[in-house]
Design goal:
Length: 181
């Protein structure tokens, strides 16, 4: 299943769990939000300063979560969103090696900067899309269990990260492929 297919499936599960009507534009709005933040991640990758793209990516994911929350009508503190975003990105740390290579290449003027930016763009896009899928999956699980606390969100994210490792890898692969197209 493609990354967009995973996104659509997860978003529809989330909407069903919240007993929202799917007759409106909400699923498309959430997909558009994810796409926009994917594009922001790609834009951040061209920052010629090593490390700037990685730091910007964490803020981008956190902001994406806040926008998703607003669209589905839930309120969580900025602190929990930052914590969850940092936790998800940290758990996707195996891709940090590739980011390190991309960021390191930016120390080489010209071609090194371009190649580093290309590596960063694909990885940051995939991390953003995958982070959105993990987050939506955690929100869906919370809704199905009728949990509303911020602590429950952290626990559900941890559960998704530990139980759905293969699906997360598949989403990352699909997201990287869809970026390259």
């Amino acid at each position: 299943m493609s990354a967009e297919g995973h996104q659509i499936k997860l978003i529809l599960e989330l909407l069903e769990a919240f007993e929202k009507s799917t007759t409106g534009d909400l699923p498309q709005e959430i997909l558009d939000c994810i796409r926009m933040h994917g594009a922001i991640a790609v834009g951040a990758s061209v920052a010629p300063i090593p490390g700037a793209a990685t730091i910007g990516s964490a803020a981008n994911v956190w902001t994406m979560y806040a926008r998703i929350n607003r669209k589905i009508g839930i309120e969580l503190s900025n602190n929990i969103l930052k914590s969850v975003a940092s936790g998800i990105i940290a758990n996707l740390g195996s891709y940090a090696v590739l980011l390190t290579i991309g960021e390191g290449l930016k120390f080489l003027p010209g071609v090194g900067t371009l190649v580093g930016a290309a590596i960063d763009a694909a990885i940051l896009y995939a991390l953003t899309v995958t982070s959105a899928c993990i987050y939506i999956k955690a929100l869906t699980a919370m809704a199905k269990k009728k949990l509303t606390s911020e602590e429950a969100l952290g626990a559900e994210v941890e559960r998704v990260l530990s139980e759905d490792k293969e699906e997360i890898k598949a989403i990352m692969r699909e997201a990287k492929k869809s970026y390259k197209k």
